[in-house]
Amino acid sequence: MNNSDLRTTIKNQEILNALKLDSANLKKMTAHNFIVDSESGPYKTIQEAIDAAEPGSTIKIAPGLYNDNIYINKPDLTLEPKEKVGDIILVVQNKPAIRVNLQPGQSCKISSMKLSHSGTNENIEEIEKLMQEKEFTLNLFGGGKVLDGISQYSECEPDLELVNKFPIEPDMNCILYVEGGELVMEKCLLSLNFIISNNRNILPAVIVTENGKIDFSQVEIKGNINHETIGVILRKGNAKIDKSKIYGHLFGGIAIWSNKNNVIKITNSKIYKNSKMGIHCVGEDGEVLIEGNKIENNNGSGVKIGIANKCQIIKNEIKQNQIGVEVISGEPFIFSNKIDKNYTDGILTNTFHNIRCDAIIKNNLSICRNSDNGIHCKGLNNYTKIELNSFIAYNKKAGIKIDEEATVSIFKNKVQKNFTQGILLVESSSAVIEQNEIKENIKANIAMGGINAINTCILKNIISGGRCEGIFIIESGNCWIKENNISDNNDGIVCITSLPEISFNDISKNKSNGIMVMKDSRPNIVSNIITDNDGIGLFIRDKSWGKIKDNTIKSNEIELVLERKNEFQQSILSDNSVTGDIRLPQGVSCNIF
């Protein structure tokens, strides 16, 4: 063989090897794509294709109606449409429509499918047995007597909420059950709108257990107005839900039981028209991120936070819910939201069995036009912090209400134009109210008092424009009103049967009196500037008296009125700078007899 023939032989062999390689690659590529078509095949059900597939394969599904339950236990599978036009619809009658059981670190992906569940079972005897077992379990967990689904969970304590007592099992009715690995889902519709019979049980759309994870983008989860459904149950699983919609569920949008090791993010989504709640977070030290969502028209709390949960609620629009945000002995961070037009309180923080509540309500853009109070804090050991909120306004009751032995910090907020009080402290509650702008509220800008009302400090605030009192105090123990600017109210300060210290304030240009002390009050009024009020600068009525010293009282219509003569009358004149009209009781004796 000459050199020319040798070169030709080598070249032909290289071409042959290349053709064999291309053929192998083509075969390999074909092996990783499995076509599902309910009419023409080669695979007529989705599960057949999954069973035949290798890890990493793509299942391409033709448009059509499918009714097989899907079990995914192979990693890196992708279920996607074969064609751009037409719907892939999966409807099952019992068990999970799709069950994902992968190892930690493994994942699968589903896109552009419509999934539904009719809520029935194949065997009626199994239904009855399952219901008996679940009802027994519910009673064991404190659910009470056997009732329908809603009644079983209507009244439960915060440490026995639905998400941590609801019985979960791999073969239960739901659309998605993720027990291991990660499910990535995009552009899918999960609908529970076609339930035929749910046998008095609650039907979740999505369940994620402790070893599972979901990553949803543009997923729509639709409930049923006639049957008890819930959108998502996260039972110590991980989740990312972005740009999705969850709505129409009688038992709430998303129920989360998490701990500090879970990563859960709900972002840029719309959670609306659910009953019970929009989003409910329980679990000690759970740090769920709820950011950039629209949470509205839920017949319950928009967001509900349980005991010791550290949920972060940031940059959401929360409106037209029964309560905007409800906190029960939790530690959430509520930041930069719009919490408006809710049907009771905008934000309610409360304590359960006196377990401490440490909510932080900070830098919210608006808390306004709520049908009760803008912010309502109540309960012993409630130490909520309310800071730097720029617009607490137009609420039909108080801007901020403190009640039932709560002790709250209120710092650098703007509280204005509420339909009753700006800040209301009821009976045994107390607060530190510092550096706020409290203006133009219909009743008192600040009102406080009642049984065991003590230890409130009102410091360095601008308190102005109230149609009634700047500060109204009744039956209050020791409290401190210091370094405030109190102007343009009807009365500056009205004190009834109380023991306040009023010092270093600028009290001016009020339409009636600067300070009026009534009944049997014992105030200390020290080093105030009381000027330019349209009525009386300092008005001491009834049996009231106290330490009144180093005040400057001038340029009022009447500077000082003392209604009854007492032993301190002369010292009031000598210890204060009073210039102008002074009206004191005269010592007149009768000589008729």
Automatic annotation (TrEMBL):
Residues of the signal sequence?
none
Report which residue ranges the record marks as coiled coil: none
One of the GO BP terms on file = ubiquitin-dependent protein catabolic process
Matches recorded under InterPro entries: Beta_helix, Para_beta_helix_rpt-2, PbH1, Pectin_lyas_fold, Pectin_lyase_fold/virulence, SCF-Subunits/Alg-Epimerases
Q: Which UniProt keywords apply?
A: Repeat, Ubl conjugation pathway
The record places domain Right handed beta helix at 205-353, 456-563
User: Annotated pathway, please?
Assistant: Protein modification; protein ubiquitination
Q: What is this protein called?
A: F-box only protein, putative
Species annotation: Tetrahymena thermophila (strain SB210)
